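User: structure tokens for this one?
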Amino acid sequence: MINRRGFIRRMASLCATAAAARAPSALADPVSSKSLSFVHTHTGEKLTAVYWKDGDYQQEVLQQVNHLLRDFRTNEVHVIDPALLDLLFELRTRVDSERAFHVISAYRSPQTNEMLRRSSNGVAEHSMHMQGKAIDVRLESFATVRLAEVARSLRRGGVGYYAASDFVHVDTGRVRYW
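Assistant:
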């Protein structure tokens, strides 16, 4: 049995829920553009890219990103998953930094991936790097262990923390941690 006060509270809650469902989400993306900065640790190349603007990915800019994040060993360029860029943007936003991501590895050709598998531990046979859906980074002037913690909190894909090599792997695959 519900009393009058409980009934009023319940109706107010239902009305507020209905109003929130009709209103634009407060969590909706309020930004009109998304940009990222990169420094490739192996090539020395730098790029600051506004890759998303006014609701659209900027195709010419994405091509520049694809080039920078290419397999630097073979020079092979591959399409980088825009969702990976969005994940990096959210990660950088959460840690409140405008600094550049230092890129250790992004796209890897099958040949490079196999070579790395033979010469080191922890390289997956079917690595998401070969699909343009993974990147290994550190963020300038930000503790890598903390970056890994924040990346895990996003729950938007795989996150690996490599303390000895001082980088974080993020990808747009299923949620998993190592």
